[in-house]
Amino acid sequence: MAYPTISAPYGLKPVNLIGGQVFAGSTRLMEIASGYATNIFYGDLVKRVATGTIEKDTGTTTATPCGVFLGVSFTNSSTGQVQQQQFYPASQAIATGTKIFAVVADDPDTLFQVAVVSGTTVISGVTITAIGNNATLVQNAGSSITGDSKVAILDSTGTSGTLPIRIIDVVRDTETTTPADNFPEVIVKINATMHQYNNSTGV
């Protein structure tokens, strides 16, 4: 059977909740500071900061996110129109008296589908033995054309409790036969102690 080819990473995409809980695709609106100078793409991890706003979480082995970014809404300062789009463009100027709101999947029990890489954007894979292990994030720059993230996880997994991502399962639909039993996509969740809602340390 021919499986779809995974040619590049695409960030973290919410697919379900752990343990068979009802998944309604619920999200939360979170504010981005006016003029925040970093792009945030669909599928990027974000975190709360001391100002009450969110920023992109650029961590790899020590990320402490509150969720995954799924889009943004703001009032364009040039047109005065509300603009909704897939990614937040860095240093966005907004209309006076308005706010920038991100859509964030922030439930700590959310499961995400993500690609596995050997480094940067080179698709690799893991075997079934990776299930239950923890993983390092690979922070690639997203695409301003598609609006999608290119964040992935590294194919070298481990048991360290400080790593931010836990592998829950493999995606069998994209299993490769060369090499055999290789899974270029996995189902993951943000590790319990790394998620800001579960971490006892405040921002």
Number of strands: 14
The computed structural class is: mainly beta
**N→C terminal distance:** 49 Å
Number of domains: 2
> What is the molecular shape?
globular
Determine the number of helices (DSSP H or I, runs of at least 4 residues): 0
Strand content: 25-35%
Flag low-confidence runs: none
Helix and strand element order: EEEEEEEEEEEEEE
The residue fraction in helices comes out at under 10%
Mean model confidence by pLDDT: 94
Radius of gyration, taken over Cα atoms and rounded to an integer in Å: 17 Å
Main sheet, how many strands, which sense, barrel? 8 strands, mixed
- How would you classify the quaternary structure? single chain
What does this molecule look like?
- The structure is a single chain.
- This protein is mostly beta strands.
- It folds into two domains: 13-19 and 108-190, no CATH class; 22-105, no CATH class.
- Helix content is 0%, strand content 33%.
- It has no helices and 14 strands.
- The chain has strands spanning 13-17, 28-32, 45-48, 54-56, 67-75, 82-85, 100-105, 110-119, 122-123, 134-135, 137-138, 152-154, 165-170, 185-190.
- A hairpin with a 2-residue loop joins strand 8 (110-119) and strand 9.
- The radius of gyration is 17 Å and the shape is globular.
- The relative contact order is 0.23.
